[in-house]
């Protein structure tokens, strides 16, 4: 993790975090009608009215500057019909993980959660958070050199 | 004599019928306005229904889709939500997704948005020197959506002749409709 001048945002130096992650997820598919009938407790996400899911991995944490911070690190659009099983390894964040200030250094509790926005063919647009999240601690010092 | 009386009757009846039709029309327009105002109050948004104007949120939303918004004061702004906002000084509402949120203990919140279909975040769209959006810039949160329906408004905007023709037809229909 570095302390870098952020040219895309405000002029002060902010913490920039680098995170690599694996994502394994099984988004349930409603194709199999029989499965739906027998497993009444199963939550079928991809039903006839779901056009796509907008999946995103967000990091949530608290700092001295801000009581709540949320940064989207990665996102993916999953259309109905796409493979509902995700097995991604060693992923780097798609977007720069800049803090608003220097709150990443020594921060022990960054929570990574996978959520998704259900986009229907027509109707309500719910936001759902997946079960299971990971806590990530950041080190107490900056790295001066990094090959990324 | 009797013929003039008959014509007089006819003319008077037509005038009364005309007034009746005009009042009918005015009532329809007022009811529509009241429903719209009611929606503004119930949703808390100055613009509870918006039409998507660009392709920056494809494949979720396309130009011409209709979005239903709410803007409740106590609703927090969170990453992943689809918000409709206006850049200070500009009239056009933009529909994009929240990708960064920084909220202070006192509720002061600043956030960054990006269109799903865009490569970069929206900082280029904001005002000169503005790096974040605030609650006051938000018109509403997208809660529901209907595809294609908003195309009519876009067509009316792009082809004003179509709009006038439609209004003329509607006006003629209401004024000339005969109650049975």
From TrEMBL, chain A:
Role summary: Essential component of the signal peptidase complex (SPC) which catalyzes the cleavage of N-terminal signal sequences from nascent proteins as they are translocated into the lumen of the endoplasmic reticulum. Essential for the SPC catalytic activity, possibly by stabilizing and positioning the active center of the complex close to the lumenal surface.
Family from the record: Belongs to the SPCS3 family.
InterPro entries in UniProt: SPC3
Topology with respect to the bilayer: Single-pass type II membrane protein
GO biological process, one term: protein targeting to ER
Domain of life, per lineage: Eukaryota
The protein's name: Signal peptidase complex subunit 3
From TrEMBL, chain B:
Coiled-coil intervals: none
CDD domains: S26_SPase_I
Subcellular location: Endoplasmic reticulum membrane
Catalytic activity: Cleavage of hydrophobic, N-terminal signal or leader sequences from secreted and periplasmic proteins
Topology of the protein relative to the lipid bilayer: Single-pass type II membrane protein
Domain Peptidase S24/S26A/S26B/S26C: 40-125
Keywords, comma-separated and alphabetical: Endoplasmic reticulum, Hydrolase, Membrane, Protease, Signal-anchor, Transmembrane, Transmembrane helix
InterPro entries (UniProt xref): LexA/Signal_pep-like_sf, Pept_S26A_signal_pept_1_CS, Pept_S26A_signal_pept_1_Ser-AS, Peptidase_S24_S26A/B/C, Peptidase_S26, Peptidase_S26B
A Gene Ontology cellular-component term: signal peptidase complex
Gene Ontology biological process terms from the UniProt entry: signal peptide processing
Pfam families: Peptidase_S24
Entry EC number(s): 3.4.21.89
Coarse class of the protein's main subcellular location: endoplasmic reticulum
TM stretches of this protein: 18-36
GO molecular-function terms, A-Z: serine-type endopeptidase activity; signal peptidase activity
Enzyme class of the recorded protein, top EC level: hydrolase
Subunit structure: Component of the signal peptidase complex paralog C (SPC-C) composed of a catalytic subunit SEC11C and three accessory subunits SPCS1, SPCS2 and SPCS3. Within the complex, interacts with SPCS2 and SPCS3. The complex induces a local thinning of the ER membrane which is used to measure the length of the signal peptide (SP) h-region of protein substrates. This ensures the selectivity of the complex towards h-regions shorter than 18-20 amino acids.
UniProt record similarity statement: Belongs to the peptidase S26B family.
Function: Catalytic component of the signal peptidase complex (SPC) which catalyzes the cleavage of N-terminal signal sequences from nascent proteins as they are translocated into the lumen of the endoplasmic reticulum. Specifically cleaves N-terminal signal peptides that contain a hydrophobic alpha-helix (h-region) shorter than 18-20 amino acids.
Family annotation (NCBIfam families): sigpep_I_arch (TIGR02228)
Protein name as catalogued: Signal peptidase complex catalytic subunit SEC11
Organism whose genome encodes this protein: Motacilla alba
């Amino acid at each position: 993790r570095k302390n870098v001048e952020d040219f895309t945002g405000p002029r002060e130096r902010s913490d920039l975090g680098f995170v690599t992650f694996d994502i394994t997820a099984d988004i349930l598919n409603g194709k199999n009608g029989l499965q739906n009938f027998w497993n009444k407790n199963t939550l079928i996400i991809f039903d006839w009215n779901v056009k796509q899911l907008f999946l995103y991995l967000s990091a949530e944490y608290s700092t001295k500057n801000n009581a709540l911070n949320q940064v989207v690190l990665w996102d993916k659009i999953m259309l109905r019909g796409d493979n509902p099983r995700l097995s991604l390894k060693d992923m780097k964040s798609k977007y720069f993980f800049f803090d608003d200030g220097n709150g990443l250094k020594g921060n022990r509790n960054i929570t990574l959660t996978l959520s998704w926005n259900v986009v229907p063919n027509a109707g309500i647009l719910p936001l759902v958070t997946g079960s299971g999240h990971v806590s990530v601690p950041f080190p107490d010092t900056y790295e001066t050199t990094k090959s990324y | 004599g009797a013929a003039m009386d008959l014509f007089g009757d006819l003319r008077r009846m037509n005038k009364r019928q005309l007034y009746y039709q005009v009042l009918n029309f005015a009532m329809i327009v007022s009811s529509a306005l009241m429903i719209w105002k009611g929606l503004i109050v119930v949703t808390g948004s100055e613009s509870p229904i918006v039409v998507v104007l660009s392709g920056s949120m494809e494949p979720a939303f396309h130009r011409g889709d209709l979005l239903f918004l709410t803007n409740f004061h106590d609703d927090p702004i969170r990453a992943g939500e689809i918000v409709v906002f206006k850049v200070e000084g500009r009239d056009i509402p933009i529909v994009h997704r929240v990708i960064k949120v920084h909220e202070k203990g006192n509720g002061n919140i600043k956030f960054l948005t990006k269109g799903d279909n865009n490569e970069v975040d929206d900082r280029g769209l904001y005002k000169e020197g503005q790096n974040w959006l605030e609650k006051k810039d938000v018109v509403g949160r997208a809660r529901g959506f209907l595809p294609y329906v908003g195309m009519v408004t876009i067509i009316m905007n792009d082809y004003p002749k179509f709009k006038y023709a439609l209004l003329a037809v509607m006006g003629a229909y209401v004024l000339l409709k005969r109650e049975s």
